Amino acid sequence: DQQVKQNSPSLSVQEGRISILNCDYTNSMFDYFLWYKKYPAEGPTFLISISSIKDKNEDGRFTVFLNKSAKHLSLHIVPSQPGDSAVYFCAASGGGADGLTFGKGTHLIIQP
Amino acid sequence: IAGITQAPTSQILAAGRRMTLRCTQDMRHNAMYWYRQDLGLGLRLIHYSNTAGTTGKGEVPDGYSVSRANTDDFPLTLASAVPSQTSVYFCASSIVPGNQPQHFGDGTRLSIL
Question: How far apart (Å, rounded) are the C-alpha atoms in residues B33 and B47?
Fold first, then answer.
């Protein structure tokens, strides 16, 4: 049973517009959430995180929103740039399990 | 700044052979992790180590073993490789265990024939 779900395998956005990537989780014990970006043949790169005591965290063009009651988080990228084209993974931790639980990823394509 | 170094970058291995994937970090992080990534799936935790001298099992530990003799190194061993272990393997580390960002190496692509 998947505890972290990214239901959109891919997303295409025009350059300069906002990209919104979504993630849902089922384990109510998760209390820390992260977004990673991954290019082909490279390891995942940490982007931004949020603790369950917050509902928003912002870092430059990247903002993560957390809705605990809906068990949903989203990553907003604005404005989107060509270099943002990559696979984005949502991950979660907490609930007594060591390590991170990852979603399957969303392939973001920024079109010129 | 090296961060996490994984070796080899890629390897083709005959089934039944023994293989050790190497992982070294120079950030003095206490916690280290091994994940595998399969096509269409996210990363899944194999084993972890919260500090030197301790290890623990993750979601998919069967067929793998690890050791943590010192802070910097966290090798992953496949005692007798099987084709289902064909995957990309990522090593990661974090300053401390728990709710911290993990930093990843660039992976080892392993094919078992």
Answer: 6
